[in-house]
Design goal:
92 residues; 78% helix
């Protein structure tokens, strides 16, 4: 399970980083794809929430000016909401 978590972690980090750097041009399809991969790996919503927080706090927010942090956090939140959809659909 640790290997699957590590692989999913890297994919999530890369996809979120791409989303943040490319903005709306990137679309949210990659987020849905990462969510599907996480589901296939047996991860849960909480696992993705932890990955999201770690990536945001440790890698994306440091060095970002205070004036642009809110926009970055909002954009990252949209990515997360889209990424968890495949996992949440299994609970319906």
């Amino acid at each position: 399970m640790k290997r699957k978590l590590f692989t999913s972690s890297r994919r999530y980090q890369n996809a979120l980083r791409t989303q943040i750097t490319q903005g709306k041009k990137a679309g949210l399809a990659s987020a849905r794809g990462v969510g599907k991969q996480a589901l296939a790996a047996g991860l849960q919503t909480l696992d993705l929430a932890k990955l999201h927080e770690q990536t945001l706090v440790a890698e994306l927010l440091p060095g970002v000016p205070a004036g642009t942090r809110a926009a970055l956090i909002k954009q990252a939140g949209s990515f997360f909401a889209e990424a968890i959809l495949p996992l949440e659909e299994t609970h319906a």
